[in-house]
Amino acid sequence: MSFHFDEPIAGNTLDLNDVVSFTGPGGADLRSQILRWTVSGSQATVHFRQQFAPGAYTLTVGPDIRDLADNPMDQNGDEDRVKRTTRLRRPSESCRRTWRCRW
């Protein structure tokens, strides 16, 4: 799942601890399925083992993600996080999604 921010991300500020939660259908905790982060410019991608169960998948990240000027996503200290949900409708689909995020 990829997040597109409105400015480039400092890749060294992202690690698996930045995934607050990753849940699948029925609320299953899928954090153990996450493999790694990759960053390219303003796009940060969470890589995880392919999921096939139909239903809602929700990924919450933050708040200590920073831009290249070392500005945190959570600039006012109120624990800003990005939470997004995608739906897998058929078992033949796989769960992949891109979201746009503003600083």
Give a structural overview.
The chain is mainly β. The protein has a single domain, classed as Immunoglobulin-like (Sandwich). 0% of the residues lie in helices and 39% in strands. It is built from no helices and 7 strands. Strand 3 and strand 4 form a beta hairpin. It is elongated. The two termini are 18 Å apart.
Radius of gyration computed on alpha carbons: 14 Å
What spatial form do the alpha-carbon principal axes imply? elongated
Q: Biggest sheet: strands side by side, in what order?
A: 3-4-1-7
Largest sheet report: 4 strands, mixed
If classified by CATH, what would the architecture be? Sandwich
Number of domains: 1
- H/E element sequence: EEEEEEE
The CATH topology assignment is: Immunoglobulin-like
CATH class: Mainly Beta
What portion of residues belong to β-strands?
Answer: 35-45%
